[in-house]
Sequence to fold (546 residues):
Amino acid sequence: MSLIAAVAMLASCKEVDPLAGTELGSMGITSVTAAFTGEVYESDPDANFSAQPDADGNIVIEVPYFYPESSDNEVPESLLTNMRVSATLATGTYIEPGVGVMDMTKVHHLTAYDASGRSIGYSLTAKITKLSGCEFSAFSVTSAGVTYQAIINPGLKTLSLMVTETEGELTGCTVEYTVSPHATVQGYTENMAIKDGTKFTVVAHNGVDKSEYTVRFAQPETVSYGARIGSGRNLWTKYFSSNYNFSMSGTPIRLACAGDYLYMLMDGTLYSIDRKTGDYIGTVSMPDGYTANSIMNDEAGNIVFAADAATDFKVYYMESIDGTPVELLSYTNGTGSANLGNIRVAGNVRENAVITANTSGLAPTGIVWAITDGVAGAAQVTSGIPGGGTLWNAYNGCFAPVSSNISDGVLALGYWAVYDVYHSSDLTTYSMVFDPDPSTDNENPNCIATATFNGAKYCAIGLGSHFNYGAVPYFSVIDASTPSAMKDALLYTVPYNDLQFSGFKGTGATSDVLIVVSEDGYYMDVYFADGNYDVITCYEFDCIKQ
Fold:
């Protein structure tokens, strides 16, 4: 009877689906990336191309006809025969067969599975595709010896020239422009007349995509305050070793900008870079008899520089990089600190400005000078950051004026015992106003830049890296118009995973950040460089109303 009962019990049991009643999430391939292989591409962050599956499971990776796109180097099909492929999968998904180094001129069939037994089939291949970019990035008109630089509104597709409609039209025009790589422009002829409403069309290299721009004789309308939300975009990112073919060796990076050029002081050499493309141009010599360890530009484009000094500290300016240095101030260090340097400037040093310098030593201390009508006032020592401690070298502390008005106070950030941003309006009492909070213990908080843009006072802070771990380097741009409200005024952050491509080089725990506002006041460019991760980048913001 017991045996009969046991058999009856087993016969009455049903197999239970462990996933029954469970709501299944998405599965499958999210995206696929294929990268060129070979030593020349190993440190190139742009030598990889991605695609997502279409509704039918087809994944076609489009490789540009030229690489780099701005070059005339046509991509041979042979580069597609040996590409390193990786796939991003939904949680719980696996694929068969796996991916790796593959001949992407062929069609590969993949199947994605998950634990519930679901499956999706995909086809994967790559093809060389003509370029589709069709945008203006620069446009100017010269007529009767006067050059008008256009303000480009990419959303409205307008080219605004500072000409009034009552002036009629511009005649005998010469036009200079920059467009998407290998695109062409229709509608321009030499010595043409241009008036309000004249149209130009940018045609992409593929001959299909195009954008029509309209000339407007008017000043573009701006947003009411500061940068237009959502306008931040990466103009370029470069790596010292792969793009410039040089590396640093531990001394500080310092940045300055004048006209079309970004200058980077590194290892005692001043390098020149095209500020809009990031392309390396060459080296620049300082005037005979002068050296610099700090360099930056003021808001009028003057180049301001100083050599680090323990006692007799001098700051100079030049109206251009090849100009004659003019001594702006001289200071005999009485703080007891070992060195002065890492200067920051707000305003126009030939008119009204504020200059700061960091002093190395046992406590975070800076020096502040107010410039009035081009003349430096008495040096003022600033200190008092709560919990401040010892700098491990003279390059890792930074004080920066909020604006050209000394009453707006000073911001401070450094590799002290506290890594937050502090503000003082009286130069003696500091309050914490912003916590960078990178969730890592590897950050090197050593640089601040400030500038006024469309009525807002902005602060950019850079956190470099010491070692090869953690969420650095990265930088943030914050509205500092009301320092006490900075914690809620973050405009933009560029995270570390956008900057770490080339990998940790260990060439120097130093970084710098710089904000430059265009002469017309419509654009704000933020530059950031980090030594250990070999990177320099530019992000652009605008205040043009869309």
